[in-house]
Amino acid sequence: MNAGEIGIEAGRIFEYNLPSHWIFRSQEDQNDFGIDGEIELKDGSGKALGKESVFKVQIKGEENSTFIHDNSLLSFTLKTERLRYYFEFKVPVILVVVEITSEKIFWLPITNNAILRKKASNLIRMIQFKFISQLKIHWSEKT
């Protein structure tokens, strides 16, 4: 698969696994610039909860992810300039990595992460993220 196909498949896997009480609004354009989507939560009666329950998601797909430390951590590298871009949002941003081969979804809140903010302030070009594999998410009520 090429990068575009991997991205499309990652988006499909992510959306399929969202719970029914989450509203997903794709914000992707055809050139894949910017943030990928927005999620708003609903209450038990199906009513959207409003601005306090909205966050952005950046979805990254990988066909063959790199696992380190006896397969206990998923390693993912991101350009520092992209991380700085996510910090500019006034709502929380969640980085989502979808391992499309296994259809596992990993996530990490970015916005309020002081360690990431400090790393982003340095002059490094790339930042390595380590996702704890035990935190993989299967949001779906179907599983």
Description:
With 143 residues, this protein is of the alpha+beta class. It has a single domain, classed as Trna Endonuclease, Chain: A, domain 1. Helix content is 21%, strand content 34%. It has three helices and eight strands. It has a five-stranded mixed beta sheet with strand order 1-2-3-6-7. The chain has a three-stranded antiparallel beta sheet with strand order 4-5-8. β4 (66-68) and β5 form a beta hairpin. The protein is globular. The two termini are 26 Å apart.
Quick description:
With 143 residues, the protein is of the alpha+beta class.
Secondary structure topology:
Blueprint: H1 3-16, E1 22-26, E2 37-41, E3 54-62, E4 66-68, E5 73-79, H2 80-87, E6 93-99, E7 104-109, H3 114-121, E8 126-132
Parallel strand pairs: 3-6
Antiparallel strand pairs: 1-2, 2-3, 4-5, 5-8, 6-7
Helix pairs in contact: 2-3
Domain DUF4365: 19-125
Pfam families: DUF4365
InterPro entries: DUF4365 (IPR025375)
Q: If helices are DSSP runs of H or I spanning 4 or more residues, what is the number of helices? A: 3
Proportion of helical residues: 10-25%
Largest sheet: 5 strands, mixed
Through-space gap between termini = 26 Å
Number of strands: 8
What CATH calls the topology is: Trna Endonuclease, Chain: A, domain 1
The H-and-E topology, N to C, reads as: HEEEEEHEEHE
Average predicted local confidence, pLDDT? 85
For the record, the count of structural domains works out to 1
Low-confidence stretches: 138-143
Q: What class would the helix/strand composition place it in?
A: alpha+beta
Shape: globular
CATH architecture: 3-Layer(aba) Sandwich
Strands ordered across the widest β-sheet: 1-2-3-6-7
